[in-house]
Amino acid sequence: MLDEGIRGEFEESKYDESELSKVESKWKRFLQDSAMAKQNLETEKANIKGLISDISHQTKTPMANIKLYSELLSEQLEEDGMEAELLGQIQAQAQKLEFLIQALTKLSRLETNILEVVPVKSQVKPLLESAVEEIRKKAEKKEIQIKIEMDFEAEAVFDRKWTEEALYNLLDNAVKYSPTGSEVLISTKLYEMWCVIAVSDRGRGISEEEIPKIFGRFYRAKEVQQEEGVGIGLYLVREILQKEGGFIKVNSEVGKGSTFLCYLPR
Ligand code: ADP
Q: Residue 64 C-alpha to ligand 1 middle, in angstroms?
């Protein structure tokens, strides 16, 4: 009976008062319920998928219009007047809203497996180089030097696009939360099971009580509200690493700096 149930071929054969008949009909009901639960889950997933693409599609036009009209308005205003300053605020908030919608759509696509993470065994060097290249301009603006120290043979099992995004988020934070002229180091270390990519900075650091909170959705420390960001970066990093069979750890000391360690399976 169990084997037939697993193969999806189970049919009741006894219709009498015997114990076997009772077991058979319960087994049948159980199989029906689990098939139903699976179907409901699929329908729910399809609904979420539809909802997400509606949100991302329907907000595109109003967002583009807000940007366009504020651009037109800025051409009419004197550059250093009060109105121009207020308009600047509107433009900055519109940009933040656009970023937020994009990040939320991406996150929920990732969570509902609409966007797939496909880890494959690859060289780590090109991954680090392109993540560093992406952040270089921002780092230069703050005169921050990014150093790579790595085991050149390092290989790990990861999805190139998503892991690059995760590393970019870590580097972006390292640059954002570090003082001008400081240094950021990205390094690798190989263990029996893991390839660890570490991103270290000499920035503001994170207190022990704060550490469990920083991976939560929308968490931002009070002191960093003036920096750009919406508090979704580290949540996304953790989600990506989990999907690759890895995990993230952080060591930090307030006022001295932080090291984020990404564990990727080898
Ligand atoms: P965001 O940077 O947009 O605020 P994140 O999810 O990337 O969002 O980070 C959450 C919070 O964790 C940040 O607001 C900041 O308080 C803290 N944090 C993250 N990275 C660092 C870092 N390298 N140094 C100090 N604090 C950090």
A: 29
